[in-house]
Design goal:
This is DUF3105 domain-containing protein. The chain has helices spanning 34-71, 137-145, 160-169, 204-212, and strands at residues 93-94, 107-109, 129-130, 149-153, 174-178, 186-190, 193-197, 238-240. By secondary structure, it is α/β, with parallel strands linked by helices.
Length: 241
């Protein structure tokens, strides 16, 4: 019987030969899905679009809102100061027990109100009418003593059309003039009574004239301002306290 050939001689401590290579025993991991690699790029692009959109739309929205407020339309109203009730004469200031004596000719006085509402005054009164310059106060107060209605305005607050609107509401026995030192845009005054107005369109102008225009508060209500002097004819005056 034939014997198999003896195995090849192996030295002590040598390793056995590796197993034969099999292609199916190992394969590299599949590549990561492309969608995951693209996700950060997509997020970055969307974020950039949002930033650009906000940078364009926000200023436009703010500008449109400001325009709406300026026009007074939309849901927001234009900002305003304290509300003034123009439906009545409750805000009229009253001054009683005013002096009625005449000052020496050429002498004026510092009045406690601006414009003055009465008190010591010049011996001649101011002529009725519309003036575009401040008038002498001591002569104007004499006109108030005669029952004159005096409408004054700040010429830095009113334009020509608004001043003309005041002139159109002036009664026959009335005087219109600028008064730079008053606080309100428009003030209407008779002897001992005064009212600050919101402007030339304040409805209380007609209410005030209807209530006080007859001169009932004046010491000489029937004298009128007609026949008085013009400001240019007054001349220089000396002011006293």
């Amino acid at each position: 019987m034939t014997q198999p050939p003896p195995p090849p001689h192996q030295h002590a401590g040598s390793l056995p030969p590796p197993p034969p290579f099999s292609p199916g025993a190992y394969a590299p991991p599949p590549p990561a899905p492309r969608r995951r690699r693209m996700l950060p790029v997509v997020v970055a692009v969307v974020a950039a679009v949002l930033v650009v959109g906000l940078a364009v739309l926000v200023p436009l929205a703010v500008s449109a809102d400001h325009d709406a407020v300026a026009r007074g339309d939309g849901d927001r109203a234009a900002p305003s100061g304290p509300t003034v009730d123009t439906s009545n004469l409750s805000a009229v200031e009253e001054y009683d027990d005013l002096a009625v004596d005449h000052l020496p000719a050429g002498v004026s006085v510092d009045y406690p109100q601006s414009p003055p509402v009465g008190g010591r005054h010049a011996p001649v009164w101011l002529e009725c009418g519309v003036y575009d310059e401040p008038v002498p106060e001591a002569n104007m107060v004499h006109s108030l003593e005669h029952g004159t209605v005096w409408i004054t305005y700040r010429d830095d607050d009113l334009d020509a059309a608004e001043i003309a609107a005041l002139a159109g509401q002036l009664p026959q026995d009335g005087i219109l003039s600028p008064y730079p030192d008053q606080e309100a845009s428009v003030v209407i005054t008779v002897w001992g009574r005064q009212l600050e107005l919101t402007g030339s369109d304040d409805p209380r102008i007609s209410l005030f004239i209807g209530e006080y225009g007859a001169g009932d508060t004046a010491p000489e209500p029937l004298a009128s301002c007609h026949g008085g002097v013009r400001p240019d004819d007054v001349g220089d005056t000396t002011r006293i306290a």
